[in-house]
Amino acid sequence: MSKETANKMGTGAVPKVMLSMGVPIILSMVLQACYNIVDSMFVARIPDADGIKNMGEYAVNALTLAFPVQMLIVAFGIGTGVGVNALLAKSLGQRDEEKVAKAAGNGITLALIIYAVFLVFGLLGVKAYIGSQTKDEVILAMGISYLSICSIASFGIILFSIYEKLLQSTGKSVYSTIAQISGAVVNIVLDPILIFGYFGLPEMGIRGAAYATVIGQVASMLIAMFFHYRKNTEVKSGREYLKLEKGIVKEIYVIGLPAIIMQALMSFMTYGVNLIFGTVSQAAVTAYGIFYKIQQFIFFAGFGLRDAITPIVSFNYGMGDKKRVKQGVFYGILYTEVIMLVGLIGLELFANPLIGLFAMSEETEALCVMATRIVAAGFLFAGGNIAVQGVFQALGCGLESLIVSLLRLCVVVLPLAWLFTMLENADFMIWWAFPIAELAALFATVLFMLRAEKKIIKPMKERNS
Question: In this structure, how many other beta carbons lie within 10 angstroms of the beta carbon of residue 317?
């Protein structure tokens, strides 16, 4: 067991450790959001063909319809990774080397099983899924082409999600950042080459965007694997650890399953919003897709900080260090709120130039600007929810985290959005469902955190420094 790693999360100043672990994760996740946006920017510029005008807008719409499944793939990968992260970090704090190795090995095997499921979906289920959201033949064909490729080659993003968390759980988030950045750069470079057919390659349109995405994901996976097996000396490797062990799998999914459901709820919400907003206008669906990717800059930064909160709090919880657990909670919430405040100000000030990058029609552009300014109002509420969910994951409060996600992403937002579609000014009112849902969830977050403080943190004994 590396003493350096134990000291970093167990004895280093919590604010500095959180920043040293969180900043690389934030950078990598913001870059992830960046290449999601770059995908849409290039796709939006696909030239008109076969007498069809605004082909780029059709393509962006197709990406929006495909996005919930892409989020679902990520949900299973990241959710499983969150469970592995928490279990491995806690086992490190307890100095249980055998359990550390089993947590890592079982996580990798679970990732392969998850991939097999999405491979089958990519081969058999894509047409029915896209067809449930649109009857437009152009959008349907584009959506099927894009999502089939992303699902069939999803092993890259699923396995990367596990190896990323293995590196983060031992305090080596800089290596997961390098892997993430490398894949993002590959994606960004390949996007225009494959979409528009540069350097003698065929012009592949939306299929080119899909191939660029999966190639970038595989690149990130391979680099993360390299760093894990070369740098993660605290984690033993071997075939014997790949064999699923009921107790380990259960411990992974005690934390991981709520995290999967939490992430999957984002997919369900997006699918539901696509259906609901489609009753208002097709432009509203496209506007939502563009806005969602822009807001990912801020939300992914918050998620990056949350991914630093979880191992730090979990490690010190495993060590029984009450003071450091409380510091992890405090600074985690503080830093996340700062991120969301900066994002709120940035979007309110620069909504117009940001939306202008996508070259949409005037109607769609106006909807995007309005949506950005309305939904950003809820970012400060969302910051508290995101940070405390990281704390819940670290303390084993998976159910509380799940309830907060249900409130944020389904229970409040979807019924409200549906009700607002019945109003005369529906194109304005539907966007208010998002900040209202974040505020409602924040009330539950505060109540759950007070209970966790009373029942879990307060009974811990103070450790001597």
Answer: 24
Cα(84)–Cα(32) distance, rounded to whole angstroms?
21
Phi and psi of 396, rounded to 5°?
Answer: 80, 20
DSSP category for residue 377:
G
Q: What is the DSSP letter of 243?
A: S
Banded model confidence at residue 319, pLDDT cuts 50, 70, 90: confident
CA–CA gap between residue 109 and residue 238 (Å, rounded): 12
Torsion of CA 427, 433, 435, 437, to 10 degrees: -170
Answer whether residue 2 shows pLDDT above 70.
no
Q: What is the rounded distance in angstroms from the CA atom of residue 409 to the CA atom of residue 54?
A: 31
Token pair for residue 402?
């799940």
Work out whether the CA dihedral 180, 72, 58, 198 comes out positive or negative: positive
Helix axes 14-43, 206-231, angle to 10 degrees: 160
The answer for 336, left when phi > 0, alpha when psi is -120 to 50, beta otherwise, is alpha
CB 210 within 8 A of CB 157: no
* 284, two tokens: 């509203």
- 216-256 tens-digit pLDDT: 999 999 999 999 998 887 778 778 878 888 888 888 888 78
Q: What is the pLDDT of residue 1?
A: 39
Residue 46 DSSP one-character state: P
Q: 140-178 b/e with 16+ CB inside 10 Å = b? A: bebbbbbbbbbbbbbbbbbbbbbbbbbbbbbbbbbbbbb
Tokens describing residue 308: 């630093």
What percent of the chain is modeled with pLDDT above 70?
Answer: 96
Output the CA–CA distances (angstroms, integers) from residue 57 to 206, 245, 279, 289, 454, in the order listed. Answer: 12, 48, 18, 11, 52
Give the C-alpha separation, 291 to 64, whole Å: 10
Cα 342 from chain centroid? 19
Q: Which pLDDT tens digit goes with each residue over 132-153?
A: 888 888 889 999 999 999 999 9
Instruction: Provide, for the chain, the percentages of residues in helix, strand and coil under a 3-state DSSP scheme, each rounded to the nearest 5.
Output: 85, 0, 15
Distance of CA 66 to the CA centre of its chain: 16
At 465, the pLDDT band (50, 70, 90 cuts) reads very low
Distance CA 410, CA 426 (A): 19
Token code pair at residue 391 = 């704390």
User: And the tokens for 358?
Assistant: 């996508």
User: Which position has the higher pLDDT, 195 or 170?
Assistant: 195
Distance CA 269, CA 398 (A): 20
Query: Is the pLDDT reported for residue 333 higher than 90?
Result: yes
**Distance between CA 28 and CA 33 in Å, rounded?**
9
